Structure formats: C-alpha cells, structure tokens
TrEMBL record:
It comes from Streptomyces curacoi. GO terms for biological process: inositol catabolic process. Residues 141-327 form the Gfo/Idh/MocA-like oxidoreductase C-terminal domain. Its EC number is 1.1.1.18. This is Inositol 2-dehydrogenase. It is an enzyme of class 1 (oxidoreductase). GO terms for molecular function: inositol 2-dehydrogenase (NAD+) activity; nucleotide binding.
Amino acid sequence: MAQRAQTLGVAVIGTGKMGADHVRRIEEVTSGARVTAVVDVDAERAKAVAARVDHCTAYTDPAAAMASAEVDAVLIASPGPAHEAALLTAFEHDLPVLCEKPLTPDSASALRVLRAEQELGHRRVQVGFMRRYDAEYMKLKALLETGQLGRPLMLHNRHRNVASPPGWTSEMLINDSVTHEMDVTRWLLGHEITAVTVLAPSPSGNAPDGIRDPQFVVFETDGGAIVDVEIYVNCGFGYQVQAEVVCERGTARVGDGHAMITHAAGRWGGIIAQDYIERFADAYDREVQAWVDATRRGEVTGPSAWDGYAVAAVCEAGVRSLQEGGRAAVDLVDRPALYGG
Ligand SMILES: NC(=O)C1=CN([C@@H]2O[C@H](COP(=O)(O)OP(=O)(O)OC[C@H]3O[C@@H](n4cnc5c(N)ncnc54)[C@H](O)[C@@H]3O)[C@@H](O)[C@H]2O)C=CC1
Ligand SMILES: O=C1[C@@H](O)[C@H](O)[C@@H](O)[C@H](O)[C@H]1O
C-alpha cells in the first residue's frame, strides 16, 4: 500500500456528537492529520463545524467530499444505516477509513462490506471499537496475554448510561451499547461468541415506557468461557463501564474509576463520569492517533471489518433472544484469509 501524504487530509462524515468531537480531536489533540472536509446531510451543521477549522470545506454529499483532492482518508461518524454507502464509496477511491461502530447495522450489509474490501485485496477499515485503546483495558489485555492468571473462565461486565436518548428501543441496548462488550469479549479472550441469552428483569421506573431496561446478557464462547453483561442505560447517576475477568489462578478488574478518592466533611468518594465522551476521552484520542499513524505508514491496524461483521452477527442473536426468549446461536461465515482466516 502506498505511503500517504505527510499530513493527512481527513474528511469527517457526520458532524453530530461524535463527529464534531473527532473534528476537535484531529485539529487540537492528535498529530499528523488535519480536517479538510466535513460532511453532514444537515448543511447548516456541516457549515458550523467547518467554520471552526481553517481551510475546511463543508459538504452535504459524502461522495463529493471523497472525490476531493484534499481528502486522503475518511472518518465516518454518521448513523449506522449510512455507513455501508460511505464505506463502499471510500473503497472506490481506495481511501483508508476509521468507521465509528457499528460497521453496519446488520450482518448482511456487513458481509457486503467485507466482500468489497476483499475485492480491493487489502484492508482499508479500522472500526471504532475504542475500548481497545483505553489504558485500563490495554493493561488487562496485556496481563491476560502473560498467562500468569491461567485460562479465563468468566468475564463480568457492567455498562451503565445516565439516560437513553430520545427514540431508543429495547433492541438498541443490544445493538448500540452491548456491541462494545461483544468486541471486548472477542478481543480480550481471543474467542468467538457462539450463543447469546438475554434476560430482562421488570423494567426500571427510570426507563421510558416500553423500554426493557436493564437487561442481563450472557454470551457463550468457543473457548468455553461464559460472559455476562449488565446493561442499564437509564441508571440516572453516571456512566460506568467495568469488567472483571475470572481466571484459573486469579481475577483482574478494570473500570472502577478510582483515579482520585477524596476524604472530606465526614465522607469519602470520587467522581463518576457522566458520558462516554468524558470516560473514554483518552481512548478516543489514542484510537484516532493510532489510525493516523498507521495510515501514514501505509498500514491498517486495529479492529477490522471482520470484527465489525462478527459483532453484527452476535447482535442479531442477541435481538432474537430478547424478542423470542431463550438462547440464540450466533451464525458466522468462515473468516476470510484477509482477516487471518
Ligand atoms: N464509539 C463510541 O463510543 C460511540 C460511537 N457512536 C457512533 O458514532 C456514530 C454517530 O453517532 P452520534 O454522533 O451519537 O450521532 P448524532 O446523531 O449526534 O450525529 C450524526 C450526524 O450524522 C448526520 N448524518 C445523518 N445521515 C448522514 C449521511 N448519510 N451522511 C452524512 N451525515 C449524516 C446527522 O445529520 C448528524 O449530524 C454512530 O455510528 C454511533 O453508533 C456514538 C456514540 C459513542
Ligand atoms: O457507543 C456508545 C453509544 O452509542 C451507546 O449508546 C452507549 O451505551 C455506549 O456506552 C457508547 O460507547
């Protein structure tokens, strides 16, 4: 793959919460790239974000931005249903892509993306599973790789959000939130998830009418591990993501948020982050920097389109279990050679 320009010109597609934060990050935090184009179907939003950046053009059509000579790479932060079209257009221009999760919203469209990338003959996509770049998760992964604790037997996860955005459904707890635990399970343990069982207690009074929140999700893996995820997106008090691996000779846990504990006025405690932008700020910075660095070296690293496809397939099993009850098997195609199969 050819070495790219000295400073990468990046088009950011989708300038909502994540896209605008990534624009800020590329301009103010990371090095080696600048934002030369922003795209949003909402023209006013794109213009407002472009106005904050020197020499940045606002577009409403992703294809027009990707055809620009100023664009060497693409960061996709539009909603999931718009990802497939943007990815396929990026492939037509052979542009490297950092695509926010999900790769696409279902496994059939994810497979079309996998096939298109295979036709290119080289990887082009890094998927935005940012927990792989979080300092605590990286430490946990490194520890597991030493083998000191023995074989991982179980992984317990908690994933809590303050409140679900308007328009949320019970399925989105799986498709939008638990996707991260699906990726983390596959990455930390090196196993594929083979079956999903979703259980739901009587909904919290905090949850909007009709939303089954919280849910308790169980994965079985091909390495014989059992993984549980408490997902509670209207907990009201903070954003918490915690994981504890139980191995044969010990356990390791991350995400307790113990960076600073204060003792004062007869109490002790710390601050709980209020959303992912705050909790995972460093992880997003590291993720984008890793993408820029790899792209400038002419490489593609990090979570692949295969990882995005595998997670989409696990989501489908999760939604089947939620809707129909019981245990749902995960249906995966064989892993293609491009992704280490
Ligand atoms: N990694 C993470 O922790 C997180 C990832 N995400 C992901 O980031 C993506 C964006 O999410 P948010 O920023 O929360 O959404 P958002 O709704 O705040 O912003 C999306 C933006 O995309 C624009 N848009 C819609 N269709 C478009 C199209 N076809 N082309 C260009 N722009 C289009 C919308 O007008 C809007 O400005 C989603 O894929 C979401 O799953 C979201 C939150 C956290
Ligand atoms: O990806 C994300 C959101 O889309 C999702 O809605 C949240 O639950 C996750 O914590 C966040 O990381």
